[in-house]
Design brief:
The complex is a heterodimer. Chain A is of the alpha/beta class. Helices cover 40% and strands 17% of the residues of chain A. In chain B, strand 6 and strand 7 form a beta hairpin.
Chain lengths: 127, 159
């Protein structure tokens, strides 16, 4: 599958696990980028375009919500779909993020198949 | 308003987290069975605040942490760097269990804000008490103890 992903999570081991699942879904390893927080994600997006962002919320330096706010301020990248992949249970916060344009939420713990399905649905491609 | 969780429910959430996230088969066991396993040497905690406050503590044996990291990474046991991958794995499990607990306590009616997971000292582990719920988990012959504690607004363990 020819698409590019950015995984934003402060846990390197979770990034690796998500990357492994994405590769099983057919995304090529060289098309998967990683960032450890929102600021690193913005830095990454200044260097390359991606088709989808998988975003954790609770992170140091710049959390997921702050990242989405910053993303929307930038015309070049504001249309990249964002999927929340998080332990977040705060409904008000999730509702606020949906109003900001987040396309879906995947609650940890999740089945790898759920992530594959979400990538497929969001990008409109068949895995 | 629910502020605590039963031992059985806590165990269900932990088993689900392990099976979904790391494909680890795990089972709850009675407290007295813990003496048959290696003692925990890895500790992690995560706090939450909101309508009610609390914390989740994890205490895991070395073998459990190695198994968890190995499964998450998809590598052999001896390829796991315990200093980095081990710490990251047990902290992430604390994060996931913390999220599951706050969701289970009632995200429909209560609002919680989850903190960041961090290493804990063994002597910071809460002792059994009225506001403390504990479950004992076995996976691949290794031990994980998960403790949930309700914390009052003054920051003290609820009596």
């Amino acid at each position: 599958m020819s698409c590019t992903l950015l995984i934003v999570d402060d846990s390197p081991i979770l990034r690796m696990a998500i990357k492994k699942t994405a590769r099983l879904a057919g995304v090529q390893a060289e098309h998967i980028f990683e960032a450890g927080n929102g600021q690193e994600a913005l830095d990454s997006l200044s260097e390359q375009w991606v088709d989808l962002i998988l975003l954790d919320l609770n992170m140091p330096v710049m959390d997921g919500e702050q990242f989405v706010e910053a993303l929307l301020q930038n015309d070049d990248i504001k249309d990249i779909p964002v999927v929340i992949v998080s332990t977040e249970s705060n409904r008000e916060r999730l509702a606020r993020l949906r109003e900001m344009g987040v396309v879906a939420t995947l609650h940890k713990p999740f089945e790898p198949e759920d992530l594959c399905q979400l990538i497929s649905t969001t990008l409109g491609v068949k895995l | 308003m629910t502020t605590n969780i039963s031992s059985n429910r806590l165990a269900d959430l932990v088993v689900e987290a392990l099976e979904r996230t790391a494909f680890l088969l795990a089972d709850a066991m009675p407290p007295e069975a813990k003496d048959e396993f290696d003692r925990p040497s890895w500790f992690s905690t995560i706090n939450y605040t909101g309508t009610s406050g609390g914390a989740v503590f994890l205490a895991a044996s070395e073998g459990f942490v190695r198994e968890l990291a190995s499964s998450l990474l998809g590598v052999e046991h001896d390829e796991v760097d315990m200093d980095t991958h081990g710490r990251d794995a047990v902290n992430e499990l604390a994060n996931i269990v913390g999220g599951s607990v706050t969701l289970d306590l009632g995200s429909d009616t209560q609002q919680f804000s989850l903190g960041l997971p961090e290493a804990a000292a063994s002597d910071n582990m809460p002792m059994p008490g009225e506001a403390v719920t504990q479950c004992f988990i076995e996976s691949e012959g290794e031990l994980l103890i998960v403790t949930h504690v309700v914390i009052t607004q003054s920051g003290k363990l609820a009596a």
